[in-house]
Design goal:
The complex is a heterodimer of chains A (332) and B (319).
Chain A (H helix, E strand, L loop, with lengths): L3 E14 L2 E14 L3 E5 L6 H9 L7 E9 L2 E2 L5 H7 L4 E4 L13 H12 L4 H14 L5 H6 L7 H13 L5 E5 L7 H18 L2 E6 L2 H7 L2 E6 L2 E7 H6 L4 H8 L49 E5 L2 E4 L8 E2 L2 E2 L1
Parallel strand pairs in A: 3-8, 3-9, 6-7, 7-8
Antiparallel strand pairs in A: 1-2, 1-4, 4-5, 9-10, 10-12, 11-12, 13-14
Helix pairs in contact in A: 3-4, 3-6, 4-6, 6-7
Chain B lengths: L1 H28 L15 H10 L6 H13 L13 H36 L4 H15 L2 H15 L16 H23 L1 H15 L2 H8 L4 H13 L1 H16 L2 H6 L5 H10 L3 H29 L7
Helix pairs in contact in B: 1-14, 4-5, 4-7, 4-8, 4-11, 4-14, 6-7, 8-10, 9-10, 11-14, 13-14
Classes of the chains: A alpha/beta (332), B mainly alpha (319).
Keywords (chain A): ATP-binding, Cell membrane, Membrane, Nucleotide-binding, Transport
Membrane topology (chain A): Peripheral membrane protein
Protein name (chain A): Oligopeptide transport ATP-binding protein OppD
Chain lengths: 332, 319
């Protein structure tokens, strides 16, 4: 494991609704090292993207309140100036977005979009930048980089566009790459290629990668460490081995249970009852997962859930994991 | 590119034929004929009949139609009953007047609207934005003819800063004197109309900017470390101007249409005023010619919009 790259302590990201602020990310703490892929998993609406945007400073601070600490390479990012972020983004941190069809400017040629990163972070000559752009396009596995460089995004497939977005993200060899559901919008064969590409880039650049996804298959395939988020909180955290082999939190176990499996073909697929509560309806005390497992007695939950560490490096929120179990494929 | 334009022009041919048929049929439905106006109690009925035969009014409709079309191709739209002059000569002089006034108005409209829309979108939800939106709703709510009359009364009559009508003063001579006099006559109607024509451009630009701000591609640009100012000019603004560009084709062809209100209130001798006068005087040959011209202009307007779009938006570029 490499040196520590990013440390988040007690991070709260709150959105303004009317006059009140609501926590979309609630007391999240995590760490990522160089050469590590950290996966953040959870359903839609549980704060994964909000967390990522807090790290890279993409929230509109007029409507968002961020408190806590985000330490990146000895710099505090909470409260950092926009200029500081402009300087960090693109050069030390890169971000890959979910929808490659929407993430590129339709009016600019590929070359101009990739080169824009170099324009603001290097003072290379135009010819050198051109060479770097072509090399990057080649590195992300695009055939005929010269041709692609001259094309517009609409002339390319989704997979190719995602490769271009990756090329943009890695142009300045950032230490940290945040990939926000990089494969969600792509079909399965392309997904595998893109994940391979991310892994090979990491091997070359020794970057730390935060991989946000709701696809547990992707996690098992790619990640070293896993953070499971539910309703803005980290409910479980551990190595990929720990999470997949002995998941603890009822939410993690339900998630794993709801993956379709070949040997159970024909069985009813397990589904978690209910949905993630909306921001305004978020319960403020008690276990947030309790309403979705109503058969677990109230006494099994902690009044104010705390992190437990039943084995080294494996953390779980609340005590309800001790009571929750599956019998004959049904949660009891 | 040229092929596309050529193809579009070819498609326009059947459209123009349909348009001309419609105009012709409508003209035929209108009561009266070119000689109705010159009938006096002394008119000899047989002589009138002979004149009508000579004019081809008893020919089958298709012969008349073909005759009309052939004449049109030779630039002959007939004679205005009202002015006793060839229609083209009547329209010609006024078209120039209208063109200048409209050009002045359109340029002024964009000069006012684009900065307003841009500021409102960029500083969304601030007092500046609210102020601009207020201006926009007020100008949208005021009827043009009321605004023009009040403006004319205030600046033309009470303050006397600008002439209250006409397109050029009789005493103006020399190229510069003439140009200045024309411009001077255009300022009041042009500015007043431009102030009230900004609504849709401001609104479109503002909502496009607000919309584009939240696009993923803007987040990508920010994630590259592009400073906010550049994110706005290179990414948000360029994409937000697309719908404005799409409208530009129409407004350019609208230049010749003229505004009936403005020209009537400012007694400005242009196409709009001519159209209105021709209708009230049943000057059919002028009306049909004007309707034809407006129709063809509208078709060219869509073509022009397509060309502008294909220049500014690579997704529309056709090979």
């Amino acid at each position: 494991m490499g040196e520590e790259l990013l440390t988040i302590n007690h991070l709260h990201t709150a959105f303004k609704r009317g006059t009140e602020y609501f926590d979309a990310v609630d007391d999240v703490s995590l760490k990522i090292h160089k050469d590590e892929i950290l996966a953040i998993v959870g359903e839609s609406g549980c704060g994964k993207t909000t967390l990522a945007k807090s790290i890279i400073g993409l929230h509109d601070l007029k409507r968002t309140k961020i408190t806590g600490n985000i330490k990146f390479q000895d710099q505090e990012l909470v409260g950092a100036s926009p200029e500081k972020f402009d300087q960090l983004r693109g050069s030390d941190m890169g971000m890959i977005f979910q929808d490659p069809l929407a993430a590129l400017n339709p009016l600019m040629r590929v070359e101009d979009q990739v080169r824009e990163v170099l324009d603001y972070h290097t003072d290379y000559s135009a010819t050198k930048k051109h060479k770097i752009v072509l090399k990057l396009l080649d590195q992300v596995g695009l055939e005929n980089p010269e041709r692609v460089a001259r094309q517009f995004p609409h002339e390319l497939s989704g997979g190719m566009r995602q490769r271009i977005i990756i090329a943009i993200a890695i142009a300045c060899k950032p230490e940290l790459i945040i990939a926000d559901e990089p494969t969600t919008a792509l079909d399965v064969t392309i997904q595998a290629q893109i994940l391979d590409l991310l892994r090979s880039i990491q091997a070359q650049n020794h970057a730390g990668i935060i991989l946000i996804t709701h696809d547990l298959g992707v996690v098992a395939d790619t990640a070293d460490e896993v953070v499971v988020m539910y309703a803005g909180q980290v409910v479980e955290r551990g190595t990929v081995f720990q999470i997949f082999n002995h998941p603890l939190h009822p939410y993690t176990r339900s998630l794993l249970k709801s993956i379709p499996q070949a040997e159970h073909e024909g069985d009813r697929l397990y589904a978690i009852e209910g949905a993630v509560p909306s921001l305004a309806k978020m319960p403020h005390d008690g276990c947030r997962f309790a309403p979705r497992i109503p058969w677990i007695p109230e006494s099994a939950h902690e009044k104010t859930p705390t992190m437990h560490e039943p084995e080294e490096g494996h953390y779980v929120l609340c005590t309800c994991y001790q009571t929750f179990k599956f019998e004959n494929g049904e949660a009891v | 590119m040229w092929k596309t334009i050529l193809r579009r022009v070819v498609i326009m041919i059947p459209q123009i034929i349909i348009l001309s048929l419609l105009v012709f049929i409508l003209a035929k439905f209108m009561p009266g004929d070119p000689f109705t106006g010159s009938i006096t109690p002394q008119t000899d009925a047989s002589q009138l009949h002979a004149l009508k035969v000579q004019a081809g009014l008893y020919d089958p409709w298709y012969t008349q139609y073909i005759h009309w079309v052939v004449n049109m191709f030779h630039g002959n739209f007939g004679t205005s009953y009202q002015f006793k002059e060839p229609v083209m000569a009547v329209i010609g002089g006024r078209a120039i007047n209208t063109l200048w006034l409209s050009l002045f108005t359109v340029i002024l409209t964009y000069l006012i609207a684009i900065p307003l829309g841009l500021l409102a979108g960029r500083y969304e939800d601030t007092n500046l934005d609210r102020g601009i939106m207020f201006f926009n709703y007020v100008t949208y709510a005021i009827p043009l003819f009321v605004f023009l009359v009040i403006g004319l009364w205030l600046f033309g009559y009470v303050l006397g800063w600008f002439p209250s009508g006409g397109s050029v003063s009789l005493s103006a001579n020399g190229f510069w004197g003439n140009t200045w006099s024309r411009l001077y006559h255009m300022i009041l109607p042009g500015v007043l109309t431009a102030l009230l024509s900004t609504t849709s451009t401001v609104q479109y630009l503002r909502s496009e900017i607000v919309d584009q701000k939240h696009q993923d591609m803007v987040a990508t640009a920010r994630a590259k470390g592009v400073p906010e100012r550049k994110v706005f000019s290179r990414h948000i603004l360029r994409n937000s101007l697309l719908p404005i560009a799409a409208f530009m084709g129409y407004s350019i062809t609208g230049l010749l249409g003229g505004s009936v209100f403005v020209e009537q209130i400012f007694t400005y001798p242009g196409m709009g005023q001519l159209f209105l006068n021709s209708i009230s005087n049943r000057d059919f040959s002028v009306i049909t010619a004007l309707v034809m011209i407006y129709g063809i202009l509208a078709l060219f307007g869509t073509l022009l919009s397509d060309i502008i779009m294909s220049v500014v938006d690579p997704r529309i570029r056709i090979k």
